Amino acid sequence: MRTTDAIKVRITDGPLPDAPARNADGECGAWVVFEGVVRRDEGGRAISALRYTAYEPMATNQLAELAGSILNTHGLVRVEVEHSRGQVPVGACSFRLSIGSAHRKEALAAMDEFIDRMKQDVPIWKEPVWA
Amino acid sequence: MRTTDAIKVRITDGPLPDAPARNADGECGAWVVFEGVVRRDEGGRAISALRYTAYEPMATNQLAELAGSILNTHGLVRVEVEHSRGQVPVGACSFRLSIGSAHRKEALAAMDEFIDRMKQDVPIWKEPVWA
User: Which of A30, A61, A119, B128 has the highest CB neighbour count under 10 A?
Assistant: First the structure.
């Protein structure tokens, strides 16, 4: 796990646990949480799970760098990233991005940008486990 | 509370309880949750709480109508809305919008649109309780 006051990054084996309790210090007026959940089909064909491969420590380092970049660009208060590696069954959560900010607009813009850049730059791959 | 298979709307007295467990049927690949939290100042002046007034049943009806509208427009799977009325202290959650969809982009677009339209159209007002 990488942690600063404002940034947390964690890679977890298997499905992510439930979301941790939100910081409640009254600094953030908006929390936006994105959860990526394994869908039951991939390209129309049924799957039972996705299997994620993360190239460490590069994946953690790049997630932390990306978190820092969007924190600064959008003036956010908190950016927390969790990603699975290994096998995650249908219906379970494999990715969670939690953004805390003073107001809403910057949190939503930052979330979209983070996920686009993560998919492009961070060395985490997935493959279907067919049902 | 208003409930259909796809839409839930609930007005709660005081702070919202923790988020309910997410539906995990593998239909939604993306869950985006927005939480509005009471910040510790309002226009630079310290507050201890916000007090919300909701004009019922119009507020619930309009939230349900808005939820249905964005569900259809953006092709979403689930829209769940919770809003407080009465007093909510600093650091507590007074509004939660949970959107489940097949993919991410439509969930983020829908979230922004929902909150903009809610602030404009739904008869819920807030006033600061000064510290």
Answer: A30
Is residue B59 within a helix (H) or strand (E), and if so which, with residue range?
Answer: helix B58-74
Give the tokens for residue B72. 């259809």
Does B6 reach chain A within 8 Å, measured CB to CB? Answer: no
The 10s digit of each residue's pLDDT in B56-65 is 999 999 999 9
Inter-helix orientation angle A104-121/B104-121, to 10°: 180
Contact B77, B28 (CB under 8 A): yes
Inter-chain contact B28–A39, Cβ cutoff 8 Å?
yes
Which residues make Cβ contacts (< 8 Å) with residue A56, sequence separation at least 6? Answer: A11
Say if residue B89 is preceded by a cis peptide, omega within 30 of 0: no
Q: What is the CA radius of gyration of chain A?
A: 15
ipTM: 0.91
Q: What is the CATH number of the domain that holds B94?
A: 3.90.1170.40
Q: Look up the domain containing B46 and give its range.
A: 2-17+27-130
Token reading at B70 = 């964005």
Q: Which amino acid is at A42?
A: E
Strands B30-37 and B7-13: unpaired
Place of tokens 């977890």: A12
pLDDT in tens, A73-110: 999 999 999 999 999 999 999 999 999 998 889 999 99
Kindly list the distances between the CA atom of residue B89 and the CA atoms of A24, A48, A116, B38, B49, in Å, as whole numbers in the listed order. Answer: 10, 44, 36, 7, 4
> What count of other Cβ atoms lies within 10 Å of the Cβ of residue A100?
23
**Residue B86, domain member (yes or no):** yes
Which 3 state secondary structure label does DSSP give A94?
A: strand
> Per the structure, how many domains does chain B have?
1
Chain B interface disruption, residue of A16, A18, A23, A33, most B CBs within 10 A: A33
